């Protein structure tokens, strides 16, 4: 019989260097964020303005943050344990309310969005404090600091939900700013000091897999948008060509992240002298432009599919080229953090996308879509060829 206390058994076992398994309940939890990503992309499609884009980016940052904090927590807590599962189910319910509120978060559902968001952030962190108090004092103290930071931000979230217009924007910007500044300030609290990166002994394999799964969620939204839009169109030459361009582009984006860079990055992540620092930089922050880029590309794909002919308008140009540039920049930063230098292929791709965006007003949407797709495909093939030695090392490590 185990000598561990009931609450101590809620933590994942790190015995013998075992890697934490991604549990089915974590994948079940992710379904809420499939809905959230869908809400974000559809919301932008219905508000193709500068203000609509700002709202989408802001809500995406909040959505990513609440998911990412849950990933950190399940890196230490064992979702196979019943109390942790029920915590995940409670987060799912609040996440569903939050996601349903996204389209009108800056209208009449702001308070519902704020309450659901704060319930997830504060409730989850307080649960970890309860799980770790008495037998994992460092973890309990760290999450006490985090809970204080999130509760402080929560006051601004709720106040913003009660406010309207520019006042809501101001209060919510303060709230999100507090949350994003927390890890960089090491969650310093007067009288309690600050956390140390050495305290964040994350399981690199679990975190890398979870972030990869979120990228799959976002790419899945792109596939759904492409398929659903194409199903309602006449299957003429222009529409079929736009459909193929969108699909090939999505495959190239998958390749750019998963083909070799993600696997080698995971190996280097696990071997890093400070996995906490790498988890904060490469996974918590540098994945934001990756996910944002996928969302904007999905919107661009739908716009190209719906109107492949004529001249590309500003919304189409920004979503297609801007989304691809965000994605390439994000994958570049991610790989840079592990390999010590930015991939030349990605730098050239960013230049090509910038030039395409400048000249895009003279192009048809379908031509624009194909040019951006070709740029991403060439970038993926270039990287694949240039990383031959890394591919061989990666393959050898799996045999």
Describe it.
The protein is mainly alpha-helical and 399 residues long. Helices cover 76% and strands 0% of the residues. The protein has helices at 24-46, 50-76, 82-101, 110-132, 137-162, 165-181, 204-231, 237-258, 261-271, 275-285, 287-306, 314-339, 344-359, 365-386, 388-397. It is globular and about 65 Å long. The two termini are 37 Å apart.
Could you outline the blueprint of secondary structure elements for this entry?
Blueprint (H helix, E strand, L loop, with lengths): L23 H23 L3 H27 L5 H20 L8 H23 L4 H26 L2 H17 L22 H28 L5 H22 L2 H11 L3 H11 L1 H20 L7 H26 L4 H16 L5 H22 L1 H10 L2
Salient structural properties:
399 residues, mainly alpha, 15 helices, globular
Q: Brief description of this entry?
A:
The protein has 399 residues and is mainly α.
Span of the ends, CA to CA: 37 Å
- How do the SSEs run, as a string of H and E? HHHHHHHHHHHHHHH
The overall pLDDT, averaged over residues, is 91
**Overall number of strands:** 0
Binned, the helix content reads over 70%
The rounded Rg comes to: 22 Å
